[in-house]
Automatic annotation (TrEMBL):
The keyword Nucleus applies. Its cofactor is Co(2+). InterPro entries: NUDIX_hydrolase-like_dom_sf, NUDIX_hydrolase_dom, NudT16. It comes from Orchesella cincta (Springtail). Its EC number is 3.6.1.64. This is U8 snoRNA-decapping enzyme.
Length: 250
């Protein structure tokens, strides 16, 4: 018989995203399948990304060249917040399979179904598992599972230029993530991070950027710190709370 704990350990150790220990978050990682099984509801989301093989001629703007060779796609949701395609995996509400590989398979199917519903694309893709987490102290309520999938540059172009149009009322727009910081240290990724994000989408985004090495830890950390400062200036109050309130919709 297959040892599920071992499979999970292997899955998570080979695929888990780098943590951002410096980022305040109210979500807790979960690598324990027994605990995952206890959650009442499961949601799965997927980060779609692509990388142009040939160096693209950079887009000159103002004082810098914007290096957008790597593209990450996010959605603007019906509620105005940014998030990734995905949603609740209803099949897991009534019964969670006893084996982790089967569980992952159902999550993957769920995320592909949502991808198709929201973007009219991706029914037959196989996104790779990244990590799971739950809101602090609510491990029995909801588990959020995260996947990544690499698109070809032409698939990305078709999606982000709107050739593939969302059929879902829940999506009001698509956006590429600015993976750079401009010379003023504010525009680009730091400004993008001051938007509102659904669930723990901002953490999922930053962890995948680190996992894939799209940006260095120093760059990501700096962008996050600037985002905190901008948020604080806008609203005053406690920085940590504010950032969490942006990321904590559950
Ligand atoms: O991109 C995301 N990353 C992490 N959590 C998210 C994201 N988008 C939504 N959520 C959270 O996941 C859960 C499912 O929401 P979603 O709107 O995706 O599901 P639905 O489309 O099935 O209604 C909610 O608790 C929501 O806060």
């Amino acid at each position: 018989m297959m040892d599920n704990t071992k499979v999970l350990e292997e899955e998570t150790s080979s695929t888990s995203a780098h943590k951002c220990p410096w980022m305040p978050t109210s979500y807790v990682d979960c690598t324990d399948f027994e605990l995952m099984k206890k959650a009442k509801i499961h949601a799965a989301h997927v980060l779609l990304w692509s990388r142009d093989e040939k160096p693209v001629s950079p887009y000159h703007y103002d004082d810098i060249e914007l290096p957008m060779q790597t593209k990450i796609l996010m959605q603007v949701r019906f509620d105005g917040s940014f998030g990734f395609p995905g949603g609740f995996v209803d099949e897991l509400e009534s019964k969670v399979p006893s084996s982790f590989p089967k569980f992952l398979e159902l999550l993957q199917q769920g995320v592909c179904r949502e991808l198709f519903e929201e973007m009219g694309f991706g029914r037959d893709t196989s996104p790779s598992y990244v990590y799971s987490c739950h809101p602090a102290g609510r491990e029995k309520d909801v588990m959020l599972h995260f996947f990544m999938f690499q698109l070809t540059p032409s698939q990305m172009k078709a999606i982000s230029w709107g050739s593939i149009i969302s059929t879902s009322d829940e999506v009001v727009g698509l956006s590429l993530v600015p993976l750079y910081t401009m010379k003023d240290g504010i525009r680009g990724l730091p400004t993008f991070l001051t938007n509102s994000f659904a669930g723990n989408a901002v953490e999922q985004l930053l962890r995948c950027i680190l996992k894939q090495g799209f940006l260095s830890e120093v760059e990501v950390r700096k962008a996050t710190e600037v985002a905190f400062k901008i948020l604080k200036k806008r609203g005053g109050g406690d920085l940590k709370f504010e950032f969490q309130s942006h990321t904590h919709i559950l």
